[in-house]
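Filed under: proteins

Residues; backbone shape codes:
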Amino acid sequence: MPDDKNNPPFDDFRKQVEELMRHAHFTPPAGFTRPGHAPGAAAPEEPAADPLAKIRSFSLKPREIKDHLDRFVIQQKEAKKVLSVAICDHYNHARQCIEDPSLRDLEYAKQNIILLGPTGVGKTYLMRCIARLIGVPFVKSDATKFSETGYVGHDVEDLVRDLVRAAGNDVNLAQYGIIYIDEIDKIASAQNMSGRDVSGRGVQVNLLKLMEETDVTLQSQTDLLGQMEAMMQFQKTGRSPARTINTRHILFIVSGAFENIADVVRKRMAKSKIGFAAEDAERQTGDFLKLSQTRDFISGGFEPEFVGRLPVRVVCEQLRADDLKQILLSSEDNILTQYKRDFAGFGIDFAITHEAIAEIANRAIEEQTGARGLMTVMEKVFRNFKFQLPSTAIRSFEATRETITDPGAALKRLLGDNRDSQRALLRGEIDSFISRFRESHGFELVFEDAALDLLMETSVAQDKSARSICEQKFKDFHHGLKIIANNTGRTAFVITRQAAESPDKELSEWIVQSFREAGAGASREKPVES
């Protein structure tokens, strides 16, 4: 029988499979070799690290988790306390089950969490920080992408498969991970709806199975790549890979704004009183969410069993302007720190006053998107600074309140205050143009200071470099200079402000003058007749 590995068709097929494996993060099967590895050569073995080491040694206290969260998330004190206790209880139980497998058979009420609150208050960030601290895989998804059948939208079991991928395909680690589902309020079943609600009740029922305890198949029927990977792993090791993962120790966190639930609570409280109290009318959405009960979620379109599997309820507070200010001043890895790094990447030292920070916070509140509003405001303010300053000689600047209120005027003033240093940079760009112009055409151009000032103003106005401005203005200049050189022999030309402003018009006048000079010279040289 011929050796298929030496056949060109097989080689082509192998290359295609290897390319597929590279993009899909496959492990190559036996018989396939990577470039630089001899067929059959054993790869050097390294001691495998224990993926469950952090869970086995989990000993964090609730206050320690809260202290860690305080470094990154501003406010949400009550939410941090509740989350810290729930996380400690969950992973202490997971550690105990690893130490004593017999505990797995005991009944345990898993503390799945529901986060309620407006957008941009730090719900997702809280859970990301906790997952990083504990060292477990974390996946986030929006509830709106799922459907009951999985054909119109995604299958909820894909969340568990994504968790396995986030764990580097380590099923043992993935079974202790965290799944975070945002916008869960969007799948509340529509009230008084005729027919079948595939995007609401059906998704809740499917999620309910995951949150309780079930075995999820790692390769879905539509996951061809996953099935191919499993086949290749069996060919390599002779053992079938794990086909399922149990969700018993996977922590589920769902979140949403739940404005509809706040409305339900508001109506319930209004019915329980003879008149709607004035203080109720002044309450915000978060105040009503704190008063929510299981019956409010059921009235709002959630299945009783679904709500029952989310025993830990946390209401996140709406952020105020002072909170947003503190995010910029004290939160680690905040957007202001990112902007400082962005400017530092161009060699620019960026500073900002407290008054400017306060103004950014006030404007971000008007965006009504929580902490995300900070990014919106800062992008509007500093977009032109990021565009202009890297091409200037400016290496430091401080943003003041006036910078935030009128960034265009502040940038213009900054460039004007640094005109002298900018002229030096501009001189370098123009020198580069002069040098290339001389090499290409044999003419020397000398720019006066007034011409340099004009070019700098034009550079700022048109958002172009001084060299590109020169190339644009003096694109065909050399043709006219050749005529002048033929008439007068001149090879050096002074560029005045007038010449820089209207080069074609000035060049035309120069050409006319050169013909006059040539004519006058010819008349002087003509011999006198006797």
About this structure: The chain is about 55% helix and 10% strand. The radius of gyration is 35 Å.
